[in-house]
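hey m, so remember when u said the tokens were messed up on ur end? i reran from scratch. heres the input so u can diff it against urs
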Amino acid sequence: MEPATLHHEPRYHALHRDGRLAALARRLEAALAECRLCPRRCGVDRRAGGRGRCSEGAEPRIAAAYPHFGEEPCLVGRGGSGTVFFTGCGLGCRFCQNDAIRRGDEGIPREPAALADVFLALQEAGCENLNLVTPTHHLPGWVRALDLSAARGLRLPVAYNTGGYEEEWVVDALEGVVDVWLPDFKTRDPERARRWMDAPDYPQVAEGAIRRMVLQSGVLRVDSDGVARRGVLVRHLVMPGAAEDTLACLRAIASMAPGMAVSLMDQYRPVVGDPGDPDLLRRPGRQEWEAALREARRLGLRGC
């Protein structure tokens, strides 16, 4: 990736200054009354204590927040990625590599003012960005916290770290809020999506959402130190028994724009006794991993 000369003020500062970030928080808070924040569209009144498919109520809960040095180099930089792990998940992959967090077994409630303190502490620790992991179902709380922390001097760019299962209206609503989009693209196969996460519409929904992210923010751009500042980095976890599916995902990503950035991940391991697919009882083989690398190079996809 060629370094780009970028203005380092995060995009949400302009929205904060003219009141649009606070207005967005109010809009999202109202949406909790009949929740449609993710494609599950549960319609649950989370403001009244209901819990949707994500297993979460109205108040954000976080499982951990710290400078993360295990992310991609362009996110880590020198100070680490300021990672905030939110509990619960609207997608709910049966093979989730952070299963306890997904189920909501871990997590501390943080009202927006307290969450703003967390954001500012990550900045004080020297982090390169604010990396929000599985943030969709907690949108109202963290957008409110972002507005509060911007008023107190937060200047970290926001990275939106998602499984890719996003409503297009949510992507549109976050224009000017998100600096770096970090979506997964897990599968293009509806049958695998049904087995893996009970979401046969995942391939269509995720591809549509990622294309919208690219239209909004462009391909990934880095500063002179090689740190991501704007654009889209698509992640793909190489799965056992799904070599052709991986190649199809990479081809779709390459078709979105010239110079697309991809992070191929090899950390899959079985974490539950019955993941719903016998292939998922083993790790990917060397041939599956090398086939993915060859195709990414052939397509001209860029690493990070």
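this time it looks ok to me. The longest helix spans residues 202-217. if urs says something different then somethings off w ur setup not the seq
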